[in-house]
Amino acid sequence: MKKLLITGVGGFIASKIANSLDNSVYEIIGVDDLSNGNLKNIPKNLNFIKLDLSNKSSFKKLPSKIDTILHLAGQSSGEISFENPKLDLEKNTVSTLNLIEYGIKAKSNRIVYASSMSVYGQVPQKPIEEDFRTHPISCYGISKLASEQYLKTFKNELPFIGLRMFNVYGPGQDMLNLKQGMVSIYLAQAMQSGKIKVKGDLKRFRDFIFIDDVIKIWANSINNEKALNKFINVGTGEKTEVKTLLEKICKLIPGVEYFEIDKTPGDQAGIYASTKKMNNIFNIQNITSLDEGLRLFLNSFKRQPNL
User: Fold this and answer.
1) Over 60: is that where the pLDDT of 304 sits?
2) What is the dihedral of CA 280, 134, 140, 246, to 10 degrees?
3) Which of 149, 121, 143, 142 is nearest to 133 (CA)?
4) Contact 160, 112 (CB under 8 A)
5) What pLDDT, on a 0 to 100 scale, did the predictor assign at position 305?
């Protein structure tokens, strides 16, 4: 059996990936410090270790040999990164560097890294390809880009795949966190109060990708040789204005209103992915539409208690 280490396993995306993998093929070790992740999210059929990746001494809890590392742990809010830049640096960059050093010692064949569209910063209104210049405008984006640079530096000792994820959404997202995840924030407010507070201009645009599509790409990356030592956008290639997203939500939930308030610091005016590399490397056939994804997300949300 191939031994996998999944970091941030109590979080939205990592827990879904862990649940999707075949336990007859993979032995999964999941780690999380539970500062953001939830113990309830962690699949029962894996070996869970509570561990802070920014604390190098805690790595002694991990096995001496790991075949593949899926690294999704970290602080994932641009807004929160401005509130505590040092913590953001520790949770994202220091943790990643520690994990790279561990992966080299553990003779891992690769580390798959959860990077972000935030590394690009402000961009023109066109599909952004992976070779576009990186100039992050948030502390979060800076920490993600620094981690990418460490991955490139040590690629001969530990091959990497850097998945630059765009706006991931879907069932299982933390609906109580109103500082991370545009779709989940808007849906949570719509369901709770019928009023959506929009932090920033309605003409901003994003690329919203459904969680099931993201999971397939992560699972594929475990054995994909074409993806090694590359940074790859993970998005739909579809440009969606914030106003369009809000109108779709209002159509699904009649009576909801929205209004603009002050924007958050370091917020990108607009960005959407070029998916040519992703489609070529992972042989993507069908991507969930935003209308279908919102419908599936809302149906799951209605079944969640206390929200």
Assistant:
1) no
2) -60
3) 121
4) yes
5) 46
> What is the pairing mode between strands 2-7 and 26-32?
parallel
**Cβ neighbours of 305 (radius 10 Å):** 4
Cβ atoms 8, 33 nearer than 8 A = no
For residue 122 the two structure tokens come to 């402000």
Round to whole Å and give the CA distance between 154 and 238. 33
Radius of gyration of the chain (CA): 19
Determine the residue type at 236. T
pLDDT in tens, 242-266: 999 999 999 999 999 999 988 877 7
Euclidean distance between the first and final Cα of the chain, in Å? 40
Cβ neighbors of 140 (< 8 A, separation 6 or more) are 75, 76, 77, 78, 80, 81, 88, 92, 116, 118, 266
